[in-house]
Specification:
This protein is of the alpha/beta class. About 30% of the residues lie in helices and about 25% in strands. The relative contact order is 0.19. The structure holds guanosine-5'-diphosphate and magnesium ion.
């Protein structure tokens, strides 16, 4: 099994940290400047029966200039071409306008969308279920998986669930 996985989420939710954890090296940090690197292959992760090609898709945020609309659309087009979309949010910080902007754009995406709730090491376990219920109302996510990209908690489980979609 192999497939392309697009990673989206507002800045600082932990996308690069996740990539680094999975790929085992600091190759995900290429540019944190918004809208400079679009749809870049971040790395290929191979396990026994599966190969994951991760694509960073940083263009999905409210455009600051005229070219921005085009870039947002270009990123959305990418999402419709991958096998799986991984939308990462921050468990600690709570839901923000940036998250809502992305969710609005995701309404038109046909591919399976995973919600990955990152930084669970920073919240009390009791806060997790309400958070999951909250996000279930927002979009029809195929899967909702809480992880800690920093300490690796539940990351292998996430990869296994992903594998079942490839
Ligand atoms: P990106 O902008 O989405 O690529 O986010 P980064 O991967 O650069 O992470 C932003 C900050 O959040 C960094 O300081 C990371 O160390 C921190 N971070 C990422 N994942 C986790 C996590 O699971 N737990 C905690 N506590 N911090 C995290
Ligand atoms: Mg990053």
């Amino acid at each position: 099994r192999s497939g392309f996985i697009a990673i989206i989420g507002r800045p600082n939710v932990g996308k690069s940290t996740f990539m680094n954890h999975v790929l085992g090296q600091k190759i995900a940090i290429m540019s944190d400047k918004p809208q400079t690197t679009r749809n870049k292959i971040q790395g290929v992760f191979t396990k026994e029966n599966a190969q994951f090609v991760f694509i960073d898709t940083p263009g999905i945020h409210k455009p600051k200039h005229k070219l921005g609309d085009f870039m947002v659309q270009s990123s959305i087009n990418t999402l419709n071409e991958v096998d799986l979309v991984m939308f990462m949010v921050n468990a600690k910080e709570g839901f923000g306008k940036g998250d809502q902007f992305i969710i609005d754009k995701l309404q038109n995406v046909k591919q399976p969308i995973f919600l990955v709730i990152n930084k669970i090491d920073e919240v009390h376990p009791d806060e997790l279920l309400p958070l999951i219920s909250f996000y279930k109302e927002k979009l029809n996510f195929k899967e909702i998986v809480p992880i800690s990209a920093l300490n690796g908690n539940n990351v292998n489980h996430l990869l296994e669930v992903m594998e079942s979609y490839l």
